[in-house]
């Protein structure tokens, strides 16, 4: 099963949309504090519809707690500062796709931990970034496509 990791997300509607994407793809959502909103925020829940009670959402106090608690096998960091495109790697079905906060992206110290695993989504050179929920969706679906749209333990397939 795929894992989506949001490092210090700030905008509740983006996170709510990502909850919906994780739900329909069987992905786990990790939120790393501090969050820019309260979990009970009405905009967050409205964007995530009624999926909250059905979701595997794991909240971590900081990056170090996430790494220690999850011991992720392979992480892919999405950043505008990467040279490698997200389409140039082979994703595995249990990878962790990591995204930074909307206003600042991923911190340099985290990017420096995994320099070979930093990926970017191509865009025009003068543009700052894609919307976070759009970046998560297109990256997650590329990873799922590469794995035949198989989710979970492999018994289920997206249809």
List keywords for this structure.
six-stranded parallel sheet; alpha/beta; 8 strands; two-stranded antiparallel ribbon; globular; 159 residues; Alpha/beta knot
Q: Report the sheet with the most strands, covering strand number, pairing sense and barrel closure.
A: 6 strands, parallel
Q: Total number of helical segments?
A: 5
Question: What structural category do the secondary elements indicate?
Answer: alpha/beta
For the biggest β-sheet, the strand order reads: 3-2-1-5-4-6
Give start-end ranges of low-pLDDT stretches. Answer: none
Helix/strand order, N-terminal first: EHEHEHEEHEHEE
CATH class: Alpha Beta
Q: What coarse outline follows from CA principal-axis ratios?
A: globular
Work out the number of β strands. 8
Describe the fold and architecture.
This protein is of the alpha/beta class. It has a single domain (3-157), classed as SPOUT methyltransferase, trefoil knot domain (Alpha/beta knot). It has helices at 12-25, 42-47, 63-70, 108-113, 132-146; strands at residues 3-7, 28-32, 57-60, 75-78, 96-99, 118-119, 150-151, 156-157. A 6-stranded parallel sheet has the order 3-2-1-5-4-6. The chain has a two-stranded antiparallel sheet with strand order 7-8. The mean pLDDT is 89.
